[in-house]
Amino acid sequence: MEAWDEGLRLFDEGLYWECHEALEAIWLVAPPGEPPASPRLCTQALIQAAAGMHHASRTGRWAGAGRLLQAAARKLEAYPASYLGLDLTALAAGFAALGEQAARIARGEAAPSSFQRLAPPRLRPRLATRPGDTGSSEPPPTALRTPV
After folding, report:
1. For the chain, which terminus, N or C, has the lower number of CB atoms within 10 Å?
2. Where do the domains of the chain lie?
3. For domain 2-117, which architecture applies?
4. pTM of this prediction?
5. CA–CA separation, 132 vs 49, rounded Å?
6. Closest by CA position to 13, among listed 131, 133, 144
7. pLDDT tens for residues 84-121?
């Protein structure tokens, strides 16, 4: 599970390409099967989300970003709300919203800068570090570098 945790950390740090690569290594050897018995489809969904975020934040390929993020959201719906320590309901909703916004940008209905207002969901919630601290909902500093 070390590679899994590393992939999740990379996503949360906004290192989407690196996350894609780390999780792909797991996906390639994951046994086939149907959800929820097999984590293969869940892993593929996170890889697609990472690729979508990479396109949105680094390459400006908005149509592809939208398709990948929406596909990731659909795949996660095949799993229980909580799976492998992840809140898949929240992740699916977040990826769907990001995917729709990327699609709107691709169609010329929104400016690329509008994507920055949507924080990507965190795969692992940020833990509180002080009494009374509930963690931060702010995106990681390297998460979004939207091309203009």
Report:
1. C
2. 2-117
3. Orthogonal Bundle (1.10)
4. 0.83
5. 32
6. 144
7. 999 999 999 999 999 999 999 999 999 999 998 888 89
